[in-house]
Amino acid sequence: MSLDREQKEGAELLLMGNEAIARGALEAGVRVAAGYPGTPSSEIIETLSRFSEAGKLYVEWSTNEKVAMEVAAAASFAGLRSLCVMKQNGVNVASDFLLHLTGSGTRGGMVLVTCDDPGALSSVNEGESRHFARLMEIPLLEPSDFREAKEMTRWAFTLSEAIRNVVMVRSVTRMSHASGNVVLGALPEIAGKAAFCCDGPVSDPDCGPVISTPVVAKHRLQQEKLRGATTLFEESPFNAYEGPEDPELLIITSSVCTLYSREALSLLRAEGRTGILKLGTTWPVPPALLKKRLASAKKVLIVEEVLPFLEDQVKILAAEQAHEIGIKEFYGKNDGTLPMVGELNPDLVAAAVGRILGIDPPSVPAEYREKLTALTALVPKREQTFCPGCPHRASFWGIREALQRDHRGGFVCGDIGCYAMASLFPAAGFHTAKTLHSMGSGTGIASGFGKLGPFGMEQPVLAVCGDSTFYHAAIPALINAVHHRADITFIALDNSGTAMTGFQSHPGLEVNAMGEAAPMVDIAALCRAIGAPVVVGDPFALTETRETLNRLLEEPGVKVLILKQSCALSPGKKGKKTFLVRVDETLCRGDACGCNRLCTRIFRCPGLLWNRDRKKAEIDEVICAGCGFCAGICPAGAIRNEEAAKS
Amino acid sequence: MNGHLVKDPYNIVITGVGGQGNVMASRVLSNMLVRKGFKVTIGETFGMSQRGGSVMSHIRVSPTAVWSPQIPKGTADLIVALEPIEAIRVLADYGNPTVKILVNLRAIYPVGVITGEDEYPSTTVIRETVMALAAQARFLDATDEAIRLGNPILGNIVMIGAVAGMKVLPIDRELFEAVIRDGMPAARVEANLRAFAIGEANVA
């Protein structure tokens, strides 16, 4: 059950953390929401888009996070409440604007929600957005459960208006993608007209131009605002202490780590000996509250994920107050009690608390444990790979064949999207993709490689980039490559949507986040306007792709190949087979073929199986998506396509 | 089961492979329990779940409290596996002598098995392993049942029906119907009800 307009105030629903955040924004009367898709944040904008309504709530998927923040800021400058949403590395993208925005200040309440991914469950980094709050000198809130995710987001708008600056709310994967009970509050009547008052002097926060200068004066004002937030934090209900008044051990924690800490104490039956100071306002940490709790315990454990962000703050405050509260014994990241990489869980926290208090965490009987340990040998790993019917597998197969024929050791600069798997799991991309960094970086790196010819580099350079990533960050890199005559072959893997995060719209589609018709910005036309020759092809047409690529690899300068085929999971395609694919056993020569089981061992589509008894390939009809591409790779022609009946 | 749990929190793991409807199964089951008045926490990892990886939902059920979205190791009360080796993978981390397990026997071979790099254990080995480690184990061919109903994806609902049939949680067909009528197009409700009934009958 998802959030909808019909649900009444007071209803208790099972909501995903991201839905709770979206509901909090709705209950605050948010008018403009903008974001760029990125796991684990995407469901916030998706949820809000279902509540969009002309003149009441405008929602967009912006081309990137910086633009999203600028769009949201404009609404704030015009007096409306606004929200911008991104995953952790999105804040890096938006940070240049954020630095200036926090200097200029805001008007209507403006909230930045970032969803971090400790442990990189669906990221290629475990970057920490919390540090941006300190760097940018803005308040930071972190919800520890689903109810709080909603309440905190709602209050963040109030706080933003009180201090006239952006407020950051930070979630993590285990909060954003977890679900729990949430009681709905009332949705306010939406009123108020947008108007940008800008005729006054620079010093007028209500009617002056919105700029970050004079810098020193504005910076001083910004710091005063932050001190104002700290004062409010001292009394905030989002900070709470539970446990004995003089605990043997004080845990200081925030976010989902609060739940891990509670569970750890429950596992160890250590609730009577340990207190938990759960902080919802984690930058700046309220000093008086912290001092009071630090005074009550000798041993202090800071439980947080990845870097010691809270730990550093707590230690500084403890040092400043040591003459009053005494010297503390600290446990956390710096002494190795908890790991400084990866996500936490109840077991890791229980082990840490157990070591400090001298309690062994409970475990299953030793004999049973041995049997469990033996199980791991029985279970084959389950490597991630492209889905059955995925056009990316076909694209990389075409690239593989072209590079094999080219013989010069060419390679692909990878990028962010499902096709990143070509870099992450080399076999999934047939060992063609060799770099993987941030959004659009494949093209920028290729632009650099493409200038190394005079240094003796003879390898052809390719870059791949998905459609959404193209608009996000590849365009400046491609312009750079064209202007500087870099020798690169740029391949746009256009699968008609932001597939990795769930088919959010982007400027290449004729629809926007709210489901309205939107003008499509054509990738091919843009590339031509930049000055690059463009070929558009279908990745499922193997021979054509290979031949086109082999031709382009011989040509100097920037060449663009757009491989267009929609994602196998896209709503229009999912569950619909183009072909009924069969293996003709009379043609499959099995191990005697000499192909060395090309279809199953190298091509690796989950829909193709190797029957060990019959020693022939076969199709798993439940798994096969019916794209029919594999029929073109079998050297014996044993894989046959039959037109599937149109359903 | 008169609306009571044998343990607080009661810990359920639903596991499978991306694309099997793991997340939907956990949502449906959890929504049924929320309607019964429980506090439910679901922890999920689904960022890459549609790309052939293992998927796991942790469900914590409590009359009073919000628990961590990750179940501590060795403390699952019920494991619902939409795929057989995923049952064993989860058992290795979360198993204990009192755990109950429900296993769909339809295998989805990992890429390494397809390529011949890894071995997939036989159904006999899987059955024997699960039975040796669980207090109660039930096996069914949920995918085959779902294919007979016309859509293999309904295997997840066959499994939810089987959970109801095991009578370890205070859930029944009426509650299931109420939940799916609320969150699903009317045209799909009938097939889901049939899938649920088949699962329920299979283990009863």
Q: What's the helix and strand layout?
A:
The complex is a heterodimer of chains A (647) and B (204).
Chain A: E1 12-16, H1 17-27, E2 32-35, H2 43-49, E3 58-61, H3 65-77, E4 82-87, H4 88-104, E5 110-116, H5 130-136, E6 140-141, H6 146-163, E7 167-172, H7 173-176, E8 179-183, H8 215-234, E9 240-242, E10 249-254, H9 257-268, E11 274-279, E12 281-283, H10 287-295, E13 299-303, H11 309-320, H12 322-325, E14 329-331, H13 346-357, H14 366-375, H15 391-406, E15 411-413, H16 421-424, E16 433-435, H17 441-449, E17 461-466, H18 467-483, E18 488-494, H19 523-530, E19 534-537, H20 542-554, E20 558-564, E21 579-583, H21 598-603, E22 608-611, E23 616-619, E24 639-643
Parallel strand pairs in A: 2-3, 2-4, 4-5, 5-7, 6-7, 10-11, 10-13, 13-14, 15-16, 15-17, 17-18, 18-20, 19-20
Antiparallel strand pairs in A: 1-8, 6-12, 9-11, 21-24, 22-23
Helix pairs in contact in A: 1-2, 1-6, 3-4, 9-13, 15-20, 17-18
Chain B: E1 10-17, H1 22-35, E2 39-44, E3 54-62, E4 78-81, H2 84-94, E5 100-104, H3 111-114, H4 123-133, E6 136-140, H5 142-149, H6 155-166, H7 173-183, H8 186-203
Helix pairs in contact in B: 1-6, 1-7, 2-4, 5-6, 5-8, 6-8, 7-8
Please identify the oligomeric state: heterodimer
Q: Could you give the count of β-strands of chain A?
A: 24
CATH architectural name of the largest domain in chain A: 3-Layer(aba) Sandwich
CATH architecture of chain B: 3-Layer(aba) Sandwich
State which percent range the strand residues of chain B make up.
15-25%
**What topology, given as strand order, has the largest sheet of chain A?**
3-2-4-5-7-6-12
CATH topology of the largest domain in chain A: Rossmann fold
Description:
By secondary structure, chain A is α/β, with parallel strands linked by helices. Chain A folds into four domains: 12-234, Thiamin diphosphate (ThDP)-binding fold, Pyr/PP domains (Rossmann fold, 3-Layer(aba) Sandwich), CATH 3.40.50; 240-357, 3-Layer(aba) Sandwich (Rossmann fold), CATH 3.40.50; 391-564, 3-Layer(aba) Sandwich (Rossmann fold); 579-643, Alpha-Beta Plaits (2-Layer Sandwich). Chain A has 21 helices and 24 strands. In chain A, the strands form six sheets. In chain A, strands 3-2-4-5-7-6-12 form a seven-stranded mixed β-sheet. In chain A, helix 1 runs parallel beside helix 6. The radius of gyration of chain A is 28 Å and the shape is globular. The two termini of chain A are 28 Å apart. The relative contact order of chain A is 0.08. By secondary structure, chain B is α/β, with parallel strands linked by helices. Chain B has one domain (10-203): Pyruvate-ferredoxin oxidoreductase, PFOR, domain III (Pyruvate-ferredoxin Oxidoreductase, domain 3). In chain B, 44% of the residues lie in helices and 18% in strands. Chain B is built from eight helices and six strands; from the N terminus they run βαβββαβααβαααα. Chain B has a six-stranded mixed β-sheet, sandwiched between helices. Chain B is globular, with a radius of gyration of 16 Å. Chain B starts with 9 loop residues before the first strand and ends with a helix. The model of chain B has no long low-confidence stretch (mean pLDDT 92). Chains A and B meet through strand 1, helix 7, strand 8, helix 9 and helix 13 of A and helix 1, strand 2, helix 2, helix 3 and helix 4 of B.
